[in-house]
Amino acid sequence: MGIRKPEVLEIARKTYAINEFGMVTCYLLIGEERGLLIDCGTGMYNIREIADELCDLPYDVVITHADFDHYCSMDMWDEVWLHPADWHMMEPEYQERAREMFKDYPAMMVKPGTFDAYDITPDQMRYPEKMPKFLPLADGHVFDLGGRKVDVIHTPGHSAGEVVLIDPSVRILFSGDACNTNLILVRELVGNGKGVSVNTALKGLLKIKAREKDFDRNFNGHIGYGGSTVHRSVPEEVMDEAIEILTRILKGTAEVEKFPVFDGIYGEWSTVKLGYTRISFDPERLIDEGEEPAV
Known about the structure:
Blueprint: E1 7-12, E2 15-20, E3 24-30, E4 35-38, H1 47-54, E5 59-62, H2 68-71, E6 79-82, H3 92-101, H4 105-108, H5 114-117, E7 133-136, E8 142-144, E9 149-154, E10 163-167, E11 172-176, E12 182-184, H6 198-209, E13 217-220, H7 237-251, E14 257-260, E15 268-274, E16 277-281
Parallel strand pairs: 4-5, 6-7, 11-13, 12-16
Antiparallel strand pairs: 1-2, 2-3, 3-4, 8-9, 9-10, 10-11, 14-15, 15-16
């Protein structure tokens, strides 16, 4: 019999990682006056039930980026924070295409062992039945929780509206999918045409790098991935490796290979690997016209 409820790990004082069956990890931060839920999962489980159990204060919900595995429970709240650059991904036409394209995602997780570790089925994944009100998340926004403040940094790369959050009080970077070992720079996967260039992605990572004095650990949106029993922060080398990879791509010195993204479900992408880190990108989207070069 597998586990039927997401695992909750206290990774710092009043700071909880909620591992939703190896699909995605949400984070709940609790201050003296308010809480903050970072991402709300795939809908495989009622994440609001867990958040309400852990936090008896009012709390905000912020979505790091508009990928379905980070937002599918958002209709359980009346309003959520999301960067406007990703709002188009919530439009009905986009949602219809995205759901068709990603329909095999839950079953794909069988390979890492999710269905051995957890008592779940692919059909548990749900999509929002209605859209909440989207509050415009912006670069530099600060969530004041009372006794702890959480900073928002807009870091376009994995998506145009990707954000990371830094909580200096516990010295943690919450990076969503912006800075991980398998960074995918989203191109026109479902016809949105609003991905970002390699140059823009590098600028985003450099913004995070500029704040590294404020954090010691990087927790992304997928700790305890699949059926893994290891729940840890991203290796500290990853940020510098990602910056180096993107720099080499722009300078034309990277060793590029083809990589089957998500086991080839979405085709083979141009990829560069260094150390722990792999970045998949669109070779036709290195730097946009009129964009200031990052290097």
